[in-house]
Write a structure and sequence with these properties.
3 domains, five-stranded parallel beta sheet, five-stranded mixed beta sheet, Trna Endonuclease, Chain: A, domain 1, 12 strands, 47% helix, Arc Repressor Mutant, subunit A, 468 residues, Rossmann fold
């Protein structure tokens, strides 16, 4: 079953409906569903679909020749296809086939092809410039190496610079799209699965809705034979050389160390050396650097951008010996004990996603152009304070929110704290305050919110209701 990606499919279809040459590029992290999206798009269209491999040029040329043969003669044996003399000749053949008909040409895993022949981007540049004005080709380049794809598309020194007609950076699903993978299960369980695995479709499909949460944790994370047991380390090895120090950085952040000096101390290295590792991890989308969304602390913090990495490095990586010695139940007890606090940041992310969706459809009482967290000094209490969500419009805080993943209803004290902390970001009387709760709110909290006038209390159940 194909889930989500309505906007991306609409973009591809809109380009397809236009005449003339089109060149959308699709890129995103591994496992995010790029090939699935393309397959859904081309299912009813004439297509040459070529997936490059991590082999040599000869092997890729044979595969491309077979893909062309399959399009030209669907009933023929692809293995018997004559092999083109070189890569340029094969690419030129596809461009010529699109002279009089709309033809989709997919090069999946494009970075692999470019690795076997670094001149392929120059070949495509030459062919695009030669045929663009008369071609009906719909060229899709797809790749998982974010740095490589961005360089090819956006660097003005790249041969392909300025040739694309659209680009789609495919991101993991947000929680509300991810709910489509969990029909019929409690939404609180769905959020916990999302907190563990994030929005990568392949990861979400590992959970069995027929199993309990405890059973799924054991099957998906605490079994050495499972797909996700080694997934993070395998992804790191594919992206960087000498994975050990990168593992150290990720584990330090997963354990709660968020500042440069804290991470460096945990690793026993200098902050100057740490800078390199953080830069690389940010470039591949695993670590994000944050500053308060409005004026606050001057200290940047680092957090893991990927939920799977957050969960795996906190609960699996330090317990691998116990898991592989057959002590899954012992590790499971630790996971279940730590899960409520672990899900707190993920719930904050989900609340932000809910607000962004409401901001887009115009159903909020205010509009914002940025939304993020805030931390800094509380001069009244003379201590550090944090605010989960601050929405900003033209530099002014117009929305302030707190998110609590607790098993009991939130009481009046949380509402009053939210009202007081809104002053730390200089929220005005017309700004709105939002309190989000897993379980709901007490009557006293509802009365306090009503007396404020510009405050909304939002339960998790309400957040999960279908949009009207």
């Amino acid at each position: 079953m194909f889930i989500g990606r309505e906007r991306e499919l609409a973009t591809l279809e809109r380009l397809y409906s236009r005449s003339g040459f089109q060149f959308p590029a699709i890129y995103g992290r591994r496992r995010v569903g790029k090939t699935t999206l393309i397959t859904q798009f081309v299912q009813d269209k004439p297509t040459v679909f070529f997936t490059a491999i991590e082999g040599n040029l000869s092997a890729n040329l044979r595969l491309l020749s077979a893909a062309i043969r399959t399009f030209e003669t669907p009933d023929a044996d692809p293995s018997s296809a004559p092999v083109y003399r070189d890569l340029y000749e094969a690419l030129d053949a596809v461009f010529r086939m699109a002279a009089s008909q709309r033809l989709v040409f997919v090069i999946d895993e494009y970075p692999y092809l470019a690795k076997t022949d670094p001149s392929v981007s120059s070949m495509l540049q030459r062919l695009i410039d030669r045929y663009r004005d008369s071609s009906q080709l719909y060229l899709i380049l797809c790749g998982s190496s974010l740095s490589f794809m961005r360089e090819q598309l956006f660097d003005d020194k790249s041969p392909l610079y300025g040739r694309r007609t659209a680009q789609i950076e495919l991101a993991p699903f947000d929680f509300f799209d991810a709910l489509g993978f969990f029909p019929g299960i409690p939404t609180t369980d769905a959020l916990q699965y999302y907190a563990m695995a994030g929005g990568v479709p392949l990861y979400l499909r590992q959970f069995d809705p027929a199993l309990s949460l405890e059973e799924n944790v054991c099957e998906v994370f605490l079994s050495p034979e499972s797909l996700l047991y080694d997934e993070p380390t395998n992804l790191i090895k594919q992206e960087v050389q000498k994975a050990a120090p990168f593992n150290g950085v990720i584990q330090a952040i997963a354990e709660g160390r968020s500042q440069n000096n804290e991470i460096a101390t945990a690793m026993g290295i200098q902050t100057s050396e740490l800078t390199y590792y953080l830069k690389e991890l940010r470039s591949i989308g695993l670590v994000s650097r944050e500053m308060p969304v409005v004026a606050g602390s001057r200290r940047a913090i680092y957090r893991l951008s990927d939920n799977l990495f957050r969960f795996w490095y906190r609960f699996v990586f330090p317990n691998r010996t116990a898991i592989e010695r057959g002590m899954q139940q012992r590790v499971l007890r630790g996971v279940l004990a730590g899960l409520p606090s672990f899900c707190g940041p993920a719930f904050g992310d989900v609340c932000a996603q809910w607000l962004w969706r409401r901001n887009a459809d115009g159903s909020l009482p205010v509009e914002f152009d940025d939304l993020g967290r805030w931390w800094g000094n509380d001069p009244q209490l003379r201590e550090e304070a944090e605010i989960d969500l601050v929405g900003v419009d033209d530099g002014r805080a117009v929305l302030v929110g707190e998110c609590k993943w607790r098993n009991e209803d939130l009481d009046r004290d949380v509402v009053e704290t939210l009202g007081r902390r809104s002053g730390l970001v200089h929220a005005q009387a017309d700004s709105w305050l939002y309190a989000f709760s897993k379980s709901g709110f007490t009557r006293a909290a509802a009365e306090a919110a009503a007396s404020h006038g510009h405050m909304r209390l939002v339960s998790f159940d309400e957040m999960c209701e279908p949009s009207k």
